[in-house]
TrEMBL record, chains A, B:
<protein>
    <recommendedName>
        <fullName>Histidinol dehydrogenase</fullName>
        <ecNumber>1.1.1.23</ecNumber>
    </recommendedName>
</protein>
<dbReference type="InterPro" id="IPR016161">
    <property type="entry name" value="Ald_DH/histidinol_DH"/>
</dbReference>
<feature type="binding site">
    <location>
        <position position="191"/>
    </location>
    <ligand>
        <name>NAD(+)</name>
    </ligand>
</feature>
<feature type="binding site">
    <location>
        <position position="328"/>
    </location>
    <ligand>
        <name>substrate</name>
    </ligand>
</feature>
<dbReference type="InterPro" id="IPR012131">
    <property type="entry name" value="Hstdl_DH"/>
</dbReference>
<feature type="binding site">
    <location>
        <position position="420"/>
    </location>
    <ligand>
        <name>Zn(2+)</name>
    </ligand>
</feature>
<keyword id="KW-0479">Metal-binding</keyword>
<keyword id="KW-0520">NAD</keyword>
<feature type="binding site">
    <location>
        <position position="262"/>
    </location>
    <ligand>
        <name>substrate</name>
    </ligand>
</feature>
<feature type="binding site">
    <location>
        <position position="214"/>
    </location>
    <ligand>
        <name>NAD(+)</name>
    </ligand>
</feature>
<feature type="binding site">
    <location>
        <position position="420"/>
    </location>
    <ligand>
        <name>substrate</name>
    </ligand>
</feature>
<comment type="function">
    <text>Catalyzes the sequential NAD-dependent oxidations of L-histidinol to L-histidinaldehyde and then to L-histidine.</text>
</comment>
<feature type="binding site">
    <location>
        <position position="259"/>
    </location>
    <ligand>
        <name>substrate</name>
    </ligand>
</feature>
<feature type="binding site">
    <location>
        <position position="361"/>
    </location>
    <ligand>
        <name>substrate</name>
    </ligand>
</feature>
<feature type="binding site">
    <location>
        <position position="130"/>
    </location>
    <ligand>
        <name>NAD(+)</name>
    </ligand>
</feature>
<comment type="pathway">
    <text>Amino-acid biosynthesis; L-histidine biosynthesis; L-histidine from 5-phospho-alpha-D-ribose 1-diphosphate: step 9/9.</text>
</comment>
<comment type="similarity">
    <text>Belongs to the histidinol dehydrogenase family.</text>
</comment>
Length: 431, 431
């Protein structure tokens, strides 16, 4: 763990290891994934069965075995304890309620005579949701991807999830059921993304692929982008806490560790204007680490990518935070709303001392799919906007075309696009 | 040109050449572009100067020569005829007015006691606009990319534009000036995209790269996606006209040709419920082709990728159009607003007989940067949304955390993320 003063002369150099911790896609990964995509596009289900049997150690013999049927889903729902199911239901409801507020409407501007202009909002027809398998197979990931799609009005939501050794978390299937997923396939990796993007005889082609995944999944999403939409490229996760010396060091320490336990590449950073508060948090992290079941992961993350930084002012802390563009930002200060206008880059902002990051991970309502690794500079949280697209509406009357026709023809001429001008001229009897 | 009935038994097979006309990125292009990006990331300005001198036949010796300075821009503005400048000014004003309507506000939901939830909207800090050089260097491209960025509140707009043989269209520089571009660099190709994404000593790193380009530019945008934002992957352009037998065949023919003159890969399609109208349009296209200065391009496009299709009903025509998801869709029918609800996939929709596509290309107001090649299934026109990002706002009071705390801890437990639960438990004195 780094303990730095923001005015240290070699601050940038020391801090750079944390900023540059994301895996770069090697030429080899790129080539492997490109090969898998081509194979799935060419051989379809056959390729999908081969990869799935090989990577997930299954013995599928026909494509029908790729789908997880209704009975299997119902059995999973029945296997989840009632209280867990109730918590998942609450999450689905709250996430749906928040995302309802993101819906935008088709509009038409009628302020100008003779020319109507507007924007039509239409849900995507079919989307694919990638859900990782194995240990990081989280029901909350299903909810956070499927519910916004459902709220947007997507007609068909397809979920893919690898089942290494044939296993799948029943809570994941239950979450899919509660969230409105229509069909589920037991495929993962680059091959699953390729199947969704290209379509096979069994897996229908979708319009957009969302959801987290490893470097192969991320690279596949990047390569099919343009053929289908994708949400964002996810990297390692991070939390940054801004503190002004108020609050309880043990609470902040717990928040930093909730990020660190995710994986060894996760980064947890505190920036405080109060050095002694920072020191108290450092001591608390050490103490609490010893009590965690996932201690080894959290400790590795904290030692390599943890940092406590002392800043001269909250303004300085906010400027630093904007440079990092953290996925999760806690404003653990006395007046978080006072600080909010200074925050320009962050995935989600957790306000004050009673809003730990975990409050937003499951059921506050906002999406937990957030831009990582500094991409909050330009990416937004997953939202209903990701599951709709827009079309411009342009409607001229004869009078409208007459009013603007000469200028249209002039610009067409300036660009050397004569036929553009003629399509106006022929209507107006020009030229 | 294909003249088909939508009920023809081999309609799909015959039509597939048009659907699959986009260039696929070869492994070789991918590798070349990947090499250029790595080179620019490593050698910075030096690599940029090398590529620019080589590809654009310049003799730059230092990085300062990469920038097009204020004097050069002012000279260009002075060189553009007053009437052209006035038309460009009108376009800037109208495009700005339309895009103002797309701005969304930061919101905070206060309907629930103890828990505030919301979404903060923040402009991107710095964006890069790619403008092609040579013959397809259009002032309207500058306007359509820069104005939405300016309306969104982007602090710095950087434009890159190759100058093959040292030449640049003065109208392009004038459009940049009128649209609020802050700095302009004479670089193009994959190297320009790489410079914007990684930053060099001379060209500042941006948060997002937008704008059209050839296959090298498109591939570079795809590969830097995730490091920076990008708008969309542009492919060959197309127009689809739906007609019900009303209107004037010569007008529709002119509209089809305004698309065909763009490039040989462009596709112009008419689908009409009136066979004789379709035949009249076919004859008009032949007649008008002979009058075009860009006849050879338009004829090649029309012969290879033009089509006239006879449909049994407008419903059938709309369903076909949704399958194509055209970039430009003209509803050249008596009641275009009646047909609008059936249109689910289209970049821009041109309503009725007095709205030729060209009316939307320059100055109606909506953006002309539209999803091509069927990507209107999931992409939207370039908009102010492309130049802002959102951050979730989550604010719990002690009471709020108490109310939801147990469910948060339960889901954390279900996912095996103990430290997540502890960050809540430690505040509430649980466990």
């Amino acid at each position: 763990m780094l303990f730095l003063d923001i005015t240290d002369t070699d601050f940038d150099r020391q801090f750079s290891a944390i900023l540059n911790r994301s895996e770069e896609t090697s030429a080899q990964v790129l080539e492997t994934v490109r090969g898998i995509i081509t194979d799935v596009r060419t051989r379809g289900d056959e390729a999908l069965i081969d990869y799935t049997n090989r990577f997930d150690r299954l013995n599928l013999t026909d494509a029908a075995g790729l789908e997880i049927g209704r009975q299997e889903v119902e059995a999973a729902v029945a296997a989840v304890p009632a209280e867990d199911l109730a918590a998942l239901k609450l999450a689905v409801e709250r996430v749906a309620r928040f995302h309802e507020k993101q819906k935008s409407q088709t509009w038409l501007s009628t302020e100008e005579p003779d020319i109507l202009l507007g924007q039509k909002v239409t849900p995507l027809d079919r989307v694919g949701i990638y859900v990782p398998g194995g240990k990081a197979s989280y029901p909350s990931s299903v909810i956070m991807n499927a519910v916004p799609a459902r709220v947007a009005g997507v007609r068909e939501i397809i979920m893919v999830c690898p089942t290494p050794g044939g296993e799948i978390n029943p809570a994941v299937l239950a979450a899919a059921h509660l969230s409105g997923v229509h069909r589920i396939f037991r495929v993962g990796g680059a091959q699953a993304v390729a199947a969704l993007a290209c379509g096979t005889a069994t897996i229908p082609r979708v319009d957009k692929v969302t959801g987290p995944g490893n470097i192969y999944v991320a690279t596949a999403k990047q390569l099919v982008f343009g053929q289908v939409g994708i949400d964002m490229i996810a990297g390692p996760s991070e939390i940054l806490v801004i503190n002004d010396g108020t609050g309880t060091p043990a609470h902040i320490a717990a928040d930093l560790l909730s990020q660190a336990e995710h994986d060894e590449l996760a980064s947890s950073i505190l920036i405080t204007t109060d050095r002694s508060f920072g020191e108290a948090v450092a001591a608390e992290v050490e103490y609490q680490l010893g009590q965690l079941s996932r201690e080894s992961i959290a400790r590795a993350s904290w030692e390599k990518f943890g940092a406590i930084i002392v800043a001269g002012s909250l303004e300085e802390a906010a400027a630093f935070s904007n440079r990092i563009a953290p996925e999760h930002l806690e404003l653990a200060v006395a007046d978080p709303f006072g600080l909010l206008p200074r925050i320009t880059n962050a995935g989600a902002i957790f306000m004050g001392h009673w809003t730990p990051e975990a409050a937003g991970d499951y059921l506050a309502g906002p999406n937990h799919t957030l831009p990582t690794g500094g991409t909050a500079r330009f990416f937004s949280p997953l939202s209903v906007d990701d599951f709709v697209k827009k079309s411009s509406i342009i409607s001229f009357s004869e009078q409208g075309l007459k009013r603007l026709g000469n200028d249209i023809v002039r610009i067409a001429g300036l660009e050397g696009l004569e036929a553009h001008g003629k399509s106006v001229g022929i209507r107006l009897g020009l030229g």
